[in-house]
Fold peptidylprolyl isomerase.
Amino acid sequence: MWRTPTRSVLVLVSSWFCLWSLCTAADDVDGEVKIEVLFKPLDCTQTSKKGDLVNVHYDGYLAKDGSQFYCSRSDKAGHPQWVVLGVGQVIKGLDIGMIGMCPGEKRKITIPPMLAFGEKGKDPVPPSATVLFEVELFTVSRGPRSMEAFKEMDLDADKILTKAEIKEHLKMSYEKGGKPRDDPHYEKIIADIFYKSDTDNDGLISAKEFNIYGHDEL
Ligand SMILES: [Ca+2]
Ligand SMILES: [Ca+2]
């Protein structure tokens, strides 16, 4: 196992290694995220970008034998996961691979170990493993913690988000994504949002509580 400080060095060392070994480890050495679009809806006007809140299902597999190590459909009661893109909430390769997706799109994303779980791996992913994710994206909310998103959700423009306002927004997003859900589904997401964001526990999300990344003035 070599230890290298940067990706470029890794690629260089790997190239030398290839000369000696006929490149049998070729799947691990190119260091790039590979994206394969499995399904793209005809209406693909809004695509995900860094900072967006996306709602996704994703299944993780080991590239070497195709065995599944994660499935969001069976984790956390099967709810799609809420992920803010580009902030390290998920492994780097997914942050990269989920950019530019529109609601309803499905992708297969192949991620080298350095952009996944690294040299050490993370149980049950073994060390230096190339992983593969199948991602289905349901909704994209523009700049989830931005002024733009806050204003969109704040229907009465009082600079406070109520549960009803957030629910309305969720419903709209899901309907736009072509996958409307039942009430208990929205209630669970809202409970999660308030648990994480309503820091003063007053049952409302203020602009300050909403803007956890502080990248926009409210
Ligand atoms: Ca309001
Ligand atoms: Ca509050």
Q: What stands out?
A: Confidence is low (pLDDT under 50) at residues 1-29, 214-218. The helical segments are 7-21, 92-97, 147-153, 163-176, 183-197, 207-210. The chain has six helices and eight strands.
